[in-house]
Every structure is written in C-alpha cells, then in structure tokens.
Amino acid sequence: MRPTNPGKRLALTGIAFAGALALAGCGGSGASGSSAAELSVAASYMPQPVSADMAAGFLTITNRGGTKDELTSVTSDSAGEITMHETNGGAMEEVNSFEVPAHGQLVFKSGGNHLMFEKLKRRPEQGDTITLKLKFAESGPLTVEMPVKSATYNPSTGH
Q: Cα–Cα distance between 97 and 15 in angstroms, integer?
C-alpha cells in the first residue's frame, strides 16, 4: 500500500470543487432561461378592413424573461408588406422596430402602436385567419394566427 499525500488530495479536491462551482454558475443562468427573453403572443386580431388593399392588426407580445428583445419585422403571405406604426399626439409614424421590455409587454392597440397590412393579396373577411411571422433581434421567430373580426370589434382587453 502506497502512502497517500494529504496535500495532493486536498489540492485535487479543491480543483474538483472549483470546477463544479464553475459549471453550476454557467448552467444556472443560461440553462434555466431566466435571463433570456421568453416571448408569447395573445389577443391578436384584425378588424375586417373597409379598404380592399389595406388593414390594421393588433396584438400583445409578453416577455416573461429577464432580457429585453426587439420586434424587428412582421411578414405574412396575405400582404405585400406589413409596417409597424406608433401613434403620438394623433399622428401615425412608421418605425423600424419596437422594444419588448424584460418582464413586460409590447401592446398594439387601436389608437396606439399597430401593424399596417399593405398591398393585401385579397380582402380578409370576418371569420378568416391571417398567419403572421414576427421576427425579433435576439429570439427566434414566432408564428401567430390572427383572426379577422368585425370592423367594429372592441375587445374586452381594451385593444
């Protein structure tokens, strides 16, 4: 039986313990996803458009994660182009992106932020569903099924 070296054993145990701590630290924030954006979409709808080539769309994007993200574009096979707008003081202005805050929401509602569907390939009718793809700066894209409601639809969520 060989004599053991208590100093060497202690050093190896310390290295193993430090390695375990380092791995736990790496996995603690990234693996659980708590620091990344966690995006979901709810309350999407399009009022039946009165115009044959243009419509508005509304929805809420919720971020339950600890990191903000940014909505950078919206596309759909139903429209030639979808632009994002904000309304300030009654004036509508096109923007290139919207921040989705950490632990917060980005709300598109009548009279506020909204999507404009331009160059519609056909006029959506009440009861139809429009498929959208939302693209973000950091997160993967989200596909949204947006129902077409009556032109006078007023959701209980206030948007």
A: 47
- pTM of the shown model: 0.77
Signed CA dihedral, 85, 101, 57, 134: sign only: positive
Instruction: Extract the tokens encoding 120.
Output: 């519609």
d(CA 153, CA 159): 10
Tell me the C-alpha distance between 156 and 4, whole Å.
74
Could you tell me if 108 and 59 are in contact, meaning their C-beta atoms sit under 8 angstroms apart?
Answer: yes
Q: What is the pLDDT of residues 57-89, one digit of tens each?
A: 999 999 999 999 999 999 999 999 999 999 988
* pLDDT score of 12: 38
Q: On the CB side of 54, how many CA atoms lie within 13 Å of its CA?
A: 5
The predicted pLDDT at position 155 comes to: 87
